[in-house]
Design brief:
Blueprint: E1 9-11, E2 17-21, E3 24-25, E4 47-48, H1 51-83, E5 106-107, H2 125-134, E6 142-146, E7 157-158, E8 163-168, E9 176-180, E10 183-197, E11 203-206, E12 227-228, E13 240-254, E14 257-271, E15 273-274
Parallel strand pairs: 7-15
Antiparallel strand pairs: 1-2, 2-3, 4-5, 6-8, 8-12, 9-10, 10-11, 10-13, 13-14
């Protein structure tokens, strides 16, 4: 077939059909035996573990998680029993078992199977709530004893003198949102009460902690909400350790499922208590 300037077709010597546009011929289509560079698959940074190995890791993780949750419940129950037992000298600082780390389901290498990601681990809402609550950064309320012993000339609290007990810190934290294995978790921590271990074998349970001693308080006035008066001196042998055992309730919500997790913290301070004597001449 002859080539024409009006754009008709012609057959070239190698049998490839081309179109003529004006005086410039369009580039011929490459023949079947021509070679082109092929781009390889895009590589991501990781692959997922084989399905069986992934399931085994998640099964072991769920078992460890449940064991830690149950162990913490026992620790919580023992701590509550301690702070409610009259005559116990001290419950010490509250310690919970650490929850297990979430398993890493990724493996290094060429991710040929990366597109087939395993399903999200099946954890219960309660387990997810425990994981999220363990991430909370709640500052332990610090015990405050007023009037401070250091402001008087003796540098100590006096036997029989009314002391005001309160706590300082973030006692009303804002609600937080978290995500655990793609589950949206809402958390709201509430300070239920503080049990003050006075260090002399007595405890004071307080729910109202906003009434603090100030210099405007009349000397010898008792606290309207939370107070104590020592009956025995700590000096000269030593100091009384006052421990504030904070009892929190962490309310959680996950996809309409709700619950509450108890949480405990402890913080201490030391108070010198002496006995004042009046000499009559």
């Amino acid at each position: 077939m002859e080539a024409h300037a009006d754009g008709t077709l012609k057959t070239t010597a190698d049998g490839v059909v081309a179109k003529v546009v004006g005086k410039k011929q369009a580039q011929a289509r490459p023949s079947s035996n021509s070679t082109t560079k092929s781009q390889g698959p895009t590589k991501s940074r990781f692959t997922y573990l084989p399905k069986d190995e992934y399931k085994a890791q998640m099964t072991a993780y769920r078992q460890k998680l449940q064991s830690a949750v149950e162990a913490n419940k026992q620790v919580q129950a023992a701590f509550v029993e301690c702070i409610n037992t009259v005559g116990t000298t001290s419950c010490g600082a509250f310690r919970q078992s650490a929850l297990p780390d979430q398993p890493d389901i990724r493996a290094a290498g060429d991710p040929a199977a990366a597109a087939a990601a395993p399903a999200a681990p099946a954890v219960t809402p309660e387990q997810a709530a425990y994981i999220a609550s363990a991430r909370l950064h709640l500052a332990a309320p610090k015990p405050v004893v007023g009037p401070p012993p250091e402001i008087n000339e003796w540098g100590m609290a006096a036997v029989g003198y009314p002391l005001w007990l309160s706590a300082e810190g973030d006692l009303d934290p804002a609600p937080v949102a978290d995500s655990v294995f793609d589950l949206a978790v809402s958390l709201d921590a509430r300070l239920v009460e503080v049990v003050f271990d006075m260090g002399d074998g007595h405890r004071v349970r307080c729910r109202e902690l906003t009434t603090r001693w100030t210099r405007s308080v009349e000397p010898g006035a008792t606290s309207p909400s939370c107070g104590y008066a020592y009956q025995e001196p700590s000096l000269p042998e030593g100091l009384y350790t006052v421990t504030a055992n904070a009892v929190w309730a962490i309310d959680w919500s996950i996809n309409g499922t709700t619950g509450s997790i108890p949480f405990y913290q402890s913080a201490s301070t030391e108070v010198p208590v002496g006995e004042l004597q009046v000499l009559v001449r």
